[in-house]
Amino acid sequence: MRFFLLLCFLGKMAFAQQNIQSPDGKLKLDFSLNSKGEPVYTLKFKDQTIIFPSTLGFKLLNDTVSLRDGFEVVKHKVSSQDSKWTPVLGQYKEIRDHFNELEVELYQKKRATQVHLRFRLYDEGLAFRYEFPRQANLQYFIVQDELTQFNIEGDPLAFWLPGDYNTEEYRTTTSKLSEIPAILASGRLTAGESYPLFQNRGIKAVQAPLLLKNEKGIYIHFHEAALVNYPAMSLELTEKGFISHLTPDAVGNKAYLQTDFVTPWRTVMVTDDARKIIASSMILNLNEPCALKETDWIQPVKYVGVWWEMFVKGSTWAYTDEQNTKLGITDYKTLKPNGKHGANTANVKKHIDFAAKHGLDQVLVEGWNEGWEDWYGLWKEDVFDFVTPYPDFDLPYLRDYAASKGVKLMMHHETSASATNYERRMDQAFQFMKDNGYNAVKTGYVGFPIPRGEFRSGQWMVNHYIRVAKTAAKYKIMVNSHEAVRPTGLSRTYPNWIAQESARGTEFESMGGSDPDHTTILPFTRFTGGAMDYTPGILQTTFDYYNPNNDQRVHTTLVKQLALYVVLYSPLQMAADIIENYERFSDAFQFIKDVAVDWDDTYVLEAEPGDYLSVGRKAKGKQEWFIGAITDENSRNANLNLNFLPKGKKFTATIYEDAPGAHWEKDPMKYRIRKVQVDASTVLNIPLAPGGGTAITIRQ
Q1: What pLDDT does residue 197 have?
Q2: How many CA atoms, within 13 angstroms, populate the side-chain half-sphere of residue 498?
Q3: How distant, in Å, are the alpha carbons of 120, 176, 206 from that of 198?
């Protein structure tokens, strides 16, 4: 009898606490139930506690029994996986998916409900999610709050954006974690469209992805993966760290779920080497494999467009200055043109000629379609139909002319965040694209969403973006979404969702600018979820060139704009400047023409978030390598070890660099180009100007 009781006691102890380690043994996860029956996890890195005991659970709507305590462990399972997969487009030709896993089945007696927890430890960090199996006592339910804690200690340095349900287009604030509440309360972070609303609710939160650097030099990165049928997660500040905060819907609920169901993965990357955050494929690995049967039509794209001229030269998206237009009723042929409309036939033809001459794939045309006169700020539902061109845009002629030049036109679907209107018209719009030879679309969601009261990061809109990607795939169309929710690795599942904006891109350089350290932070935060259409390549960085009274400027040197093509990963890259400027700076433009946009391998050479970053990449299927190195507002030297090159061979490196005296503010367009012989033993030491960089092409 004593022996039996001892076995029972030991069995309960075994279920009460379980642990797994990462494949390299540096990370350790402990899981247990506390005295209240609450699930608790702890994460250690090299025997240092990173996540202190943190509880997991849910609060459901109109439910007297929350899914947070009273659990018991039914069983658990430990397993491992080490496999490889090939991305359609990406930073690597092949990606390894290597982790150890703990699955815990929980049962709550009070409501006779099962909840499973699945933990995975990669060498880079921890991922976990909640799983709700199909069961009699939990079929349909509404989430009021997710109660996932991330408890930390100390006062780390934080690289953060304010919690905002509708936009990620803020400058990154760098501060101590303890300083965030006061900065949020100051009200000075007003770039977002909904932050004041968020602030007025008394919520002190920051967006995911979030990067911290603690007092011991350890980097901690919080995000989520596989965001499907669920609202995006922000991180609400608590006395102990953070608790998950989900975007609400129009009536204040968070998510409407039906079993069986799994949540997105909550991820915590931990390292003492910042380079590993950028090199990691963990977020991608946590997504489902490719859902498309055929993918050969998905190709990398380098493009120019009728776009930047709207910001610096006074061109307009609208055809006329008259207002109060009505979709399908207004006859634009009877209206007076404003004479500034950028998407006219002659201008687009000029861009097609330029793309053909320089070997670029596509030409984006914004403002080609009716409806731009009163598209923004009116919460108008039937704003665009996505198939009717303005009178001065001869679509059949331009379609045929582009085809004769071996160039494609890129479609633009600005929705004005009227997602209901877009969903009604999507199939017609994509069929129109297919009929007219388009295979890529830039979508936009500027404004407050319709359904009214929803947010761009809520469950309804999250599902909308996925519906767009899936519908586009039926027509073999690639999607580049702007103003959508931040990416969580879904490009693995839907590789035609080729890129997103979802951060502060180049357009903001015409609206007050982004700080010189902006692009030294983005790769550690926003880019961990997927590719961004950042739209670099502005070579004329001062705007008084167009208007003597315009004292704005891009907050980089010319050469840093070149380096961004390598540093900021995307299989979709825009040569964003006005095409005449590329003719003026033809020698610098050569790098944009040469640089690859799809890769066999990536090498993070140097990295410190907010300060500097140097990245090398090997072009897909070619013996060509490209390097980009950038710095913040401080000058420094980039030390670039070329040991990734094949041994025993000589190569020519073409180096585009800031010339002596260059400075992002004082003399930004001062550059020089030189060639040197290099091999695998070479270490290049290249000065970077304040706000500057270097871009390098290496060929045999």
Answers
A1: 62
A2: 29
A3: 33, 21, 11
**How many C-beta atoms surround the C-beta of residue 534 within 10 A?**
27
Catalytic residues: 507
pLDDT of residue 6: 36
How far out from the chain centre does Cα 406 lie?
31
Mean pLDDT over the full length of the chain: 95
All residue ranges of the chain with pLDDT < 70 are: 1-16, 190-200
DSSP-assigned states of every residue in 67-110: BTSSEEEEEEEEEEEEEEE--SSSS-SSEEEEEEEEEEEEEEGG
Residue 640: strand pairing partners: 684
Tokens of 427: 């199939």
What span, in angstroms and rounded, lies between the C-alpha atoms of 176 and 329? 55
Query: Does an H or E element contain 426, and which?
Result: helix 419-435
Spell out the long-range contacts of 42-47 with Cβ–Cβ below 8 A and sequence spacing 24 or more: 43/126, 43/268, 43/270, 45/218, 45/270, 45/271, 45/272, 46/272
Q: Which helix (H) or strand (E) holds 207?
A: strand 205-207
Q: What is the DSSP letter of 457?
A: T
Check residue 263 and report its DSSP letter: P
pLDDT tens per residue across span 541-562: 999 999 999 999 999 999 999 9
C-alpha torsion 132→133→137→138, nearest 10: 40
Q: What angle do CA 30, 234, 200 make, to 5 degrees?
A: 135
Q: How far is CA 56 from CA 14, 234, 646, in A?
A: 20, 16, 49
- Measured in whole angstroms, how far is the alpha carbon of residue 307 from the centre of its chain? 21
Quickly count: other Cβ atoms within 10 Å of residue 664's Cβ: 25
Contact (CB, 8 A) for 227 and 463 = no
